[in-house]
C-alpha cells in the first residue's frame, strides 16, 4: 500500500515525521509564511498520513492584528477538540493582538463564540484588519504545496 505524503515533504522526511510521532493520533505540520505578513498554514495528518484538516491565518506584527482565514476539519475528526488546538496554536503568534475571522460557515458561527468565551479573546467575523492584511471576501489563499518546507509542530 502506498501511503500519501504531505506536500513539499520528501519521502525520507515524511517517514521521519511519522516515526517521531507514531504515538500520536494526529500530527501537525506548520508551513511558515514565505514572507511576512504571508499566509501561515497548519495542517493535520492522521496516523496513515491522510490530510484531516487545516488552518490558514495571517498576522501583521506591525499593527498587532491577526486574521483566521480558513479552518477545515474532516467530518470524521470533528468534535475531538482539534479545532480548539488549531486556534490556540494560532493565537500564540499574536498574544494580545486584535483578531478576526473571514467568512464563518454556519458551523463556525457556533464554534467561534464558544471559543471566544473559553479563550477570552474576541474572534469577530470581518472584525477589520490592517491595510497590510486586507483581502477581498472570498479570496482563496495559495495552496500549501507552493510554500516553504513545513516544520513539525511539537507543541501540539
Ligand atoms: Zn498591518
Describe the structure.
This protein has 156 residues and is an alpha+beta fold. Helix content is 22%, strand content 24%. It has a single domain, classed as Aminopeptidase. Strands 5-4-3-2-1-6 form a 6-stranded mixed beta sheet, covered by helices on one side. The chain is globular and about 40 Å long. The site of zinc ion (ZN) has 5 residues, from loops. Residues 60, 62-63, 130, 132 line the site of zinc ion.
**CATH hierarchy class name:** Alpha Beta
- Report the β-strand fraction as a percent range: 15-25%
Proportion in helices: 10-25%
Shape: globular
What is the N-to-C order of secondary-structure elements (H for helix, E for strand)?
HEEEEHEHE
CA radius of gyration is 16 Å
Distinctive features:
3 helices, 156 residues, alpha+beta, 6-stranded mixed sheet, Aminopeptidase, globular, 22% helix, single chain, binds zinc ion
Helix and strand arrangement:
Elements (H helix, E strand, L loop, with lengths): L10 H10 L5 E6 L8 E7 L4 E10 L4 E9 L8 H10 L6 E4 L4 H14 L31 E2 L4
Parallel strand pairs: 4-5
Antiparallel strand pairs: 1-2, 1-6, 2-3, 3-4
Bound molecules: zinc ion.
Amino acid at each position: 500500500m502506498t501511503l500519501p505524503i504531505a506536500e513539499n515533504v520528501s519521502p525520507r522526511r515524511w517517514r521521519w515525521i511519522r516515526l517521531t510521532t507514531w504515538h500520536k493520533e494526529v500530527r501537525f505540520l506548520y508551513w511558515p509564511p514565505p514572507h511576512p505578513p504571508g499566509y501561515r498554514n497548519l495542517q493535520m495528518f492522521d496516523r496513515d498520513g491522510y490530510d484531516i484538516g487545516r488552518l490558514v491565518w495571517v498576522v501583521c506584527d506591525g499593527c498587532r492584528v491577526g486574521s483566521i482565514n480558513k479552518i477545515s476539519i474532516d467530518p470524521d475528526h470533528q468534535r475531538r477538540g482539534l479545532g480548539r488546538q488549531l486556534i490556540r496554536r494560532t493565537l500564540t503568534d499574536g498574544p494580545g493582538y486584535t483578531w478576526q475571522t473571514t467568512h464563518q460557515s454556519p458551523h463556525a458561527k457556533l464554534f467561534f463564540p464558544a471559543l471566544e468565551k473559553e479563550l477570552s479573546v474576541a474572534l469577530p467575523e470581518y472584525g477589520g484588519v490592517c491595510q497590510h492584511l486586507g483581502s477581498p471576501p472570498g479570496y482563496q489563499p495559495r495552496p500549501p504545496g507552493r510554500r516553504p518546507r513545513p516544520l513539525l509542530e511539537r507543541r501540539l
